Amino acid sequence: MTRQRLAWLSTFLAAISRFLTQTLPGRILVFLSLPAAIVAVALWEPDHSPPLFDMQMHYNEEAWEGFSAKGILKSLQRKNVRWVAVSSTPNEGTAKLYRLDGARVIPFLVPYRTREDRDHWVEKPETIEWLQTELALGTYRGIGEFHLYDGRMDTPVVRRLVALAVERNLVLNVHAEADVMERLLTFDPGMRVIWAHAGLKTSLRRVGELLERHPRLHVELSHRADIAPDGQLAAEWRDLFERFPDRFMVGSGTYNNEFWYRYGHTLELNREWLRQLPPKLAERIAFQNALDLLTHP
Questions:
Q1: pLDDT 10s digits, 74-91
Q2: d(CA 5, CA 189)
């Protein structure tokens, strides 16, 4: 490049810098560009860490405009997230991702079609007919994440849903507190259950008790801030992982856009405490347990 061209380029870049930093329109442009920059940092920074299986991804309708399905899948590839169990409200979000990458995306069927259905689907008999129609497509590997609440979970709809899952060898992904989960696990000895967020606020003692009594219960760990406070793996969690090495799995829990913006950070937090475990145990929790659950009866 000639000196004349270098001088021209230097003058041009200096002018751009002055415009962006010293003029009102330029500062407004920088401000408006911040969300895009945040998304770029959250989703596109490469990661060369060991692989993960994200067992709790949600691609709900509010995320569709700001986070394209293609962009998410490219991000997963760059961040070495090789598999994702996806559920969404409505289920079209899951379909968007699955159509683009059926090898990486493991689809789960949510038994309600809108957010408004979340608190009432257990009482609607028409839910079962709709579920049967959707499951007949043959693409789903599980049902959930769905919410169950104390006093409103032992209904004919829930019992039939469990029966459908057992008949079709599907995994259930359930958001519930410990007492509700324990009651659900009595419905059918053949059911396989993922306990979303480890009960969220359930004590580790109760988590351990349920795992001890129910060998087909598995635990997903998103949104449990007590696993590694300040980045250090808590001793109580380490003990639980060592007692039940084949029952835990990681997830992101991207139920709203805030967690999509933080997706890369969430992965790194998980990887940070996984590095504090023995390599074989870390591997099991990072991806092998989820693979075993979804590829073996």
A1: 999 999 999 999 999 999
A2: 76
